[in-house]
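SAMPLE LOG
Freezer: B-3
Tube label: C17
Construct: single chain, 152 aa
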Amino acid sequence: IGFRDVATLLQSGNVVFTAKGSDKAVAQKLADALEKSHRFRPAIVVRTGAEIVDVIARNPFAAAAKAEPNRLLVSFLAGPPAKDAAERLAGIKVAKEKLRLVGNSLYVHYADGGMGTSKVTNVVLERALGVAATARNWNTVTKLMAMLAAAG
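STRUCTURE (predicted):
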């Protein structure tokens, strides 16, 4: 579909590439191509290399990123969160999970048992945020950053 320097990260749904156009236009082009070739239209979230650098730099859970990178998730929002998203997030009943909304990204540290035992699911978070989101653990985020750095 005209993208260059395309590389995927395993079978994770993550693709690094070079393309022209806004995030929204690139996401639309990807969704159109997938719908045409596979007969379904997934939600696509696009971030630039600079935005990934920013997500890493603004991580409010640096200690968790080092100690438990598999228990730290970043939810990349498909658009701006609802105006009352911070209030709604604060109202989510958590066990030991910690939530921090930073711009168009939500950081979630799943302590004690990880994500598999938590009631703080992506559906719960999307409802509170008022926008679709896709989550990646910190290991994946840093691997994507390494791919971006290698691509130049």
